[in-house]
Specification:
about 350 residues; Aminoglycoside 3'-phosphotransferase, Chain: A, domain 2; 2 domains; five-stranded antiparallel β-sheet; two-stranded antiparallel ribbon; 11 helices; about 40% helix; about 10% strand; Phosphotransferase family protein; Aminoglycoside_PTrfase; ACAD10-like; Kinase-like_dom_sf
Length: about 350
Amino acid sequence: MSTSTAQLDTEAVARFVSGRLPGFTEAVTAQKFAMGQSNPTYLLQAAAHRYVLRRKPLGTLLKSAHAVDREFRVLSALRGTAVPVPTVHLLCEDEDIIGSVFYIMDHVEGRTFGEPRLLELPRADRAATLDEMNRVLAELHMIDVGDVGLSDYGPPGNYFARQLARWSKQYHSSQTVRIDAMNTLIRELEATLPEDDGQRTLVHGDFRIDNMIFSPDGRQCRALLDWELSTLGHPYADLAGVIMQWQMPPGSEGRGLAGVDRAAEGLVTDTAFVQAYCDRRGLTGIPDFGFYLAFSFFRMGAILQGVLKRAMDGNASNPEQAQKLGSYVPQFARAGLDALEKPDL
């Protein structure tokens, strides 16, 4: 975590929040989290209480991107459900306060893991952490969206058709150089789009272990974070997103499990993770999983292209990291094409 408060007017924040939350009668200090390429995120220390502020970035933004107001809504709706989330307090839609929309939530104490190898944990404990991740994912997809007031949180229709059209448009609008593999992947996904099977759930959109806060032993998830891409859609998008991440190289950049001896490291296989998810949801299996996996590679490539474009335009939260992430777009495109050739895990 950086101690920088770049581009955050803490005095303006304190004036807005004063009287609305306890502890904001005095000056507030802020530390900017190093993570959070999309939406700058700050730890606020106000008197004896810690909060987190999450804001839209400054500058010209892609339409519908950086939707912190949607994050606020979904976090509010999920409070008290089986999906653990931070308690949110205030949404400020007045861009004149600090230059962009922002919201404030409680800071959740706990442990985070930067990648799924879970090297910080004893080998014997790693499977339990990944199973807890699996449990939270299944619980998310079993939320009754009507009961929590989210029945209008996303448009109707074929989720993958809608998302493919959206992210293709986003990708082309942020394209900096021609990437043939990405264009081919878009065409192949359009040609192999499955029929809508009627599943329509709340989906997170960026479900990864580094977006979760755990208890010190890693056995309990205390909060699922980063809901910017959440919507109503198809649950297999989230599940395939996990498997996509795991097929990337290990380490702080790829944050995957490619080439890792999972049995020796106490980690589950892709197949076992998918089966545990199906068992929890009462599913017999997932046909044509390769399409969902390929789509996940495509969408992440499109997201990273947007990160790169913002860096080139001078609007990235962490420009150096954004440039590095953007360089992975061709790799994601090729991985998506490979996934289409393998319909099942």
